[in-house]
Amino acid sequence: MIHLAGPYLLASVLAGLGAYGVLARRNAVLVLIGVELILNAATLLLVSVGASGGDRWAAGNVLTLFVITIAAAEVCVALAVVLAVYRLRGDIDLDRTRS
Amino acid sequence: MTGLDVAFAAVGLVAAASGLLAVTTRHVVHAALWLVVCLGSVAGCYLVLGAEFVALVQVLVYVGAVVVLVLFALMLTRAPIGPHAQIATSRLHRVLAAVLGAGVTAMLAAVLLPLAAPVSRRETDTTELASQLFGTWVWPFELLSLLLLVALVAALAVSRVAGRGAREAGRSAP
Question: Where are the domains of chain B?
């Protein structure tokens, strides 16, 4: 037996922390870290629903694998964009207006 | 409180604390390293919840690949070693962000916690997961391989175009 309040609470905390990280950071790579935290909150919810046995076709686990794969693709493209911005502008400060 | 609850509380506290440090630390590289701790303890949560294969994939793909990519990007953009004030926004901005983050947490908890109930944990073993993945979910799975290919080509294209743009900008500037 496991009480699902723990996973649900951890997922909400991780989503909140990720939202804070996205909003409060100026470095573009650190914004991506916040996005990763939000994605992990979502996958934690999927896995805990899978653990409760309320899904068909092992959907909780399979969809978690899909989300992890999509996150890897997203990070790949996002970091390419960040590096491109660094080469064009010399920094990746999101607050700096274009001079 | 069963043993599983205690185990989940332990790894969950580590995950929440390291997640907090990852978004608040002023050391750029430390943020990526705290992200390793956070994602690793989330993998521990998956183990407690009975999803062993997902936990292994989390360690392999997230801790192994994504964080290494993030560290590479930090190094290639000449991340400063040591505390750095330039990575955080102004105090008012951070307070507003904290209020919004707390609001997100409160809203999700208010929606989810009434649904929480003690359940008997259902373990998904790897055999069942594999037969579902290559049976029911095989077409989404194949589409994902296409998505990975497109992401690979797109990352290459973006960096090539940006390199050409930077060279042209450097040529016209002097």
Answer: 1-111, 124-174
CATH numbers and ranges of domains, chain A: 5-89 (1.10.287.3510)
Structural fold of domain B1-111 = Four Helix Bundle (Hemerythrin (Met), subunit A) (1.20.120)
Q: Is B76 on the interface with A (CB under 8 A)?
A: yes
Chain B, residues 105-134, CB within 8 A of chain A, namely 105-109, 112-113, 115-124, 128-129, 132-133
d(CA A16, CA A12): 6
Q: Which residue has the tokens 């309040």?
A: A5
Between residues 28 and 87 of chain A, which touch chain B (CB distance below 8 Å)? 29-30, 32-34, 36-37, 40-41, 43-45, 47-48, 50-53, 57-58, 60-62, 64-66, 68-77, 79-87
Is some CB atom of chain A closer than 8 A to the CB atom of B36? Answer: no
Contact A72, B61 (CB under 8 A): yes
Nearest to A45 by CA among B116, B16, B38: B116
pTM, to two decimals = 0.87
3-state secondary structure of B174: coil
Question: Tens digits of per-residue pLDDT, B89-125?
Answer: 788 888 999 999 999 999 999 998 888 888 888 887 8
Q: What is the ipTM of this complex?
A: 0.88
Query: Which chain A residues contact residue B48 at CB under 8 A?
Result: 2
- A44/B144 Cβ within 8 A: no
